[in-house]
Design brief:
The two termini are 39 Å apart. Strand 2 (111-119) and strand 3 (123-130) form a beta hairpin. The strands form 8 sheets. Strands 1-2-3-4-6-5 form a 6-stranded antiparallel β-sheet. It has a 3-stranded antiparallel β-sheet with strand order 7-9-10. A 3-stranded antiparallel β-sheet has the order 25-12-26, covered by helices on one side. By secondary structure, it is α+β, with helices and mostly antiparallel strands. The longest helix is centred in the first third of the chain and has 20 residues, at 216-235. ATP binds at residue 150. Belongs to the protein kinase superfamily. CK1 Ser/Thr protein kinase family. Casein kinase I subfamily. Residues 111-397 form the Protein kinase domain.
Length: 677
């Protein structure tokens, strides 16, 4: 944990005999106390480095002998489904208190609870049998003899301020095509209760009970109808957020709707369109937030980005491939790092590879949905038309009703992705091929003297730095590639003095702490793949406090905690799979965000640029690239910022040479190994 040093009086510290003493930290405190006794001037507070050497979790990839439905990451729930595979539960489980034996809410008839249909993290669903009023032969609607009753405890997440958010979603989507109707809702005892249509088996149940196979014709019908259902839901301003086989249910067996598809469980549904303005919700990324089911979630959900229509369609594409092939390439990962490994595998798996044993329409659909932009409106008609050549011409004999596409009057078979020649071809996002790139960032500023060096060996580093120092230049940026160094020195840093250390450690804690004592602050840092690091510390920075963290994974939770304490990210570096993040107070930023991706996050960066953010720090491992973007407190005269990606250091690139000749662009470099766009 960071140790906050100040001038206040402290009590005696009780030493734990089982805890080793950090001699360097102890010596620092003694020196500070001695200095404070001699010098009456105030001593500036600083934070001792928080270095966390966390061991990498053991990851095992195992074969699954038995297919089971995946659990939902945030709010798993299966509502309204009469799934044969979920009925074999102990009788004392459903009858155990505090669930009531009978339910009556919101003017409904009285129902007696019977079998449990499903159990999630925040609620449970039972069969409810009507025991008062009505017609004993009525099977659907508010007076149905058999209904699904969903309970959610008043203390569960989302119910702190009243009924669960799912209620509001059902109110908005009431009557939407393919969404089951809620007939009654209210509170009974400690539970919020919904009474809804009883449905039949889920697609997962059908697949599992059919020797874990499903015909191409059946899956194509599912594709057509599910796209129609999602289109209607999206037109109401909502995305589902958890599309998967377990959440698609057929109508009750023996009813007129037994071949009709329904999409259930709206617990993770969210608005993609603002209810007041009618505009698309703002883009954001929170790498510590995941919503959905790991197996089927889109990569943007894994990365913590705001949900939009593209995410539902990507999850649907994975669902269709699973039903056809019986397995997805990322199944089998275990451990705490499962989500990271699954997302990495999804990003590295091209549509061609994923759909190599599927008919062409499924590959085309996959290619289309993974290329969708955050706020792009999907072409649902085109997506549906892809599957025309697979399903039979007579809708009456199809295994799944496809009324949704027919009702809106799609001209089936006439729309393909190749029809519109006037459309610009999209760049393919996921090629599945790794690439190493230099990312250069140009910031507009007044002309100044600037010098760069690259492919510098350890033994020649001091020669270049000393020469630059003699000419009045200070290091503004450092980077490393293949254990060779690159650095930029210029006359516009505002620094008064500078020191650096080339160390075999990542990072050298004792050296940094000693320089902190002399009022130097970390202004640039880089790590090499052999574990060494180059740390540059300067006087004349605007910083008042500083802290850093070294960890085996990107430390977003720590960054978020420090943001709340008034710190901002000012430098980042990597060495192998390890991250080092430096955060400082007084950095001059009013707000800051992180873009974390397995690719160069072009779309996210452009979204941030439009809202006044500019890139202020970058770093990357062989797996991930992180970009920190900030809003300066003082608006610069020229806010221009450009990026350039090249396979080698960009000295011969025309854009690089033009900027260097003009001397009005400040350049930074970072090594980024990413999946090629």
């Amino acid at each position: 944990m960071p140790v906050l040093r100040g001038r206040g009086r402290r009590g005696k510290q009780q030493l734990d005999p089982q805890r080793p003493i950090n001699n360097a930290a102890t010596r620092t405190r003694r020196r500070t106390a001695a200095a404070a006794a001699v010098v009456a001037a105030p001593v500036e507070e600083k934070i001792v480095a928080a270095v966390e050497e966390a061991a990498a979790p053991e990851i095992k990839e195992v074969e699954e002998d038995k297919q089971v439905p995946e659990e939902v990451g945030e709010k798993p729930m299966d509502s309204g489904g009469k799934s044969p595979g979920k009925l074999n539960m102990p009788e004392d489980d459903f009858a155990s208190p505090p669930f009531p034996e009978k339910v009556q809410v919101g003017g409904s008839p009285t129902y007696r609870l019977e079998k449990k249909l499903g159990k999630g993290g925040f609620g449970q669903v039972f069969v409810g049998r009507r025991i008062t009023g009505g017609n004993i032969n009525e099977r659907t609607g508010p007076g149905a003899v058999e209904v699904a009753v969903k309970f959610e405890h008043r203390n569960s997440k989302g119910c702190n301020y009243g009924p669960p958010p799912e209620w509001q979603v059902y109110n908005t989507l009431g009557g939407s095509y393919g969404v089951p109707r809620v007939h009654y809702k209210g509170r009974q005892g400690d539970y919020y209760v919904m009474v809804m249509d009883m449905l039949g088996p889920s697609l997962w149940d059908i697949w599992n009970n059919n020797s874990r196979t499903m015909s191409v014709d059946m899956v194509a019908c599912i594709a057509i109808e599910s796209i129609s259902i999602l289109e209607k839901m999206h037109s109401r301003g909502y995305v589902h957020g958890d599309v998967k086989p377990e959440n698609f249910l057929l109508g009750a067996v023996g009813s007129p709707d037994e071949k009709k598809l329904f999409l259930v469980d709206l617990g993770l549904a969210a608005r993609w369109r603002d209810g007041n303005t009618g505009l698309h919700v703002q883009y954001d990324q929170r790498p510590d937030v995941f919503r959905g089911t790991v197996r089927y979630a889109g990569v943007h959900a894994h990365l913590g980005r705001t949900g939009s229509r593209r995410d539902d369609l990507e999850s649907l594409a994975y669902t269709l491939v699973f039903l056809l092939r019986g397995r997805l390439p990322w199944q089998g990962y275990q451990g705490e790092n499962k989500g990271f490994l699954v997302c990495k595998k999804k990003m590295a798996t091209s549509p061609e590879s994923l759909c190599c044993f599927c008919p062409q329409p499924f590959k085309s659909f996959m290619e289309y949905v993974v290329d969708l932009k955050f706020d792009e409106e999907p072409n649902y008609a085109k997506c549906i038309s892809l599957f025309d050549g697979i399903v039979g011409p007579n809708p009456d004999i199809r295994p799944i009703k496809t009324e949704g596409a027919q009702k809106v009057g799609y001209k089936r078979g006439r729309l393909t992705f190749e029809d519109e020649e006037d459309e610009q071809p999209k760049k393919k996002v996921r090629m599945g091929m790794p690439a190493t790139q230099w990312v250069s960032i140009y910031n507009a500023r007044r002309p100044m003297k600037q010098r760069y060096h690259y492919n510098v060996m350890d033994v020649r580093l001091s020669q270049h730095i000393d020469k630059g120092t003699e000419d009045g230049l200070f290091i503004s940026c450092v980077a490393s590639c293949h254990n060779l160094w690159a650095l930029v020195m210029d006359a516009g840093t505002g620094f008064k003095a500078q020191v650096y250390e080339l160390s075999p450690f990542f990072l050298h804690k004792e050296w940094i702490m000693e320089r902190w004592e002399k009022n130097f602050y970390i202004s640039a840092v880089a790590g090499a793949s052999d574990g060494s690091s180059l740390v540059v510390m300067s006087k004349g920075t605007p910083y008042s406090q500083q802290s850093y963290k070294v960890s085996e994974s990107f430390p977003f939770k720590w960054i978020n905690k420090k943001w709340k304490e008034g710190f901002c990210v000012t430098s980042m570096a990597t060495s192998g799979t390890r991250w080092a993040v430096v955060m400082s107070r007084g950095a001059g930023f009013s707000n800051q965000v992180v873009e974390l991706d397995f690719l160069y996050p072009s779309e996210g960066i452009h979204q941030r640029w439009e809202n006044g953010y500019r890139i202020t720090a970058t770093a990357a491992t062989s797996d991930q690239a992180a970009f920190v973007l900030s809003v300066p407190r003082r608006k610069p005269v020229d806010e221009t910022q450009e990026t350039l990606r090249t396979s080698t250091f960009p000295t011969t690139h025309s854009k690089f040479l033009r900027r260097c000749e003009d001397l009005n662009i400040r350049i930074t470099y970072r090594r980024v190994k990413v999946v090629s766009e």
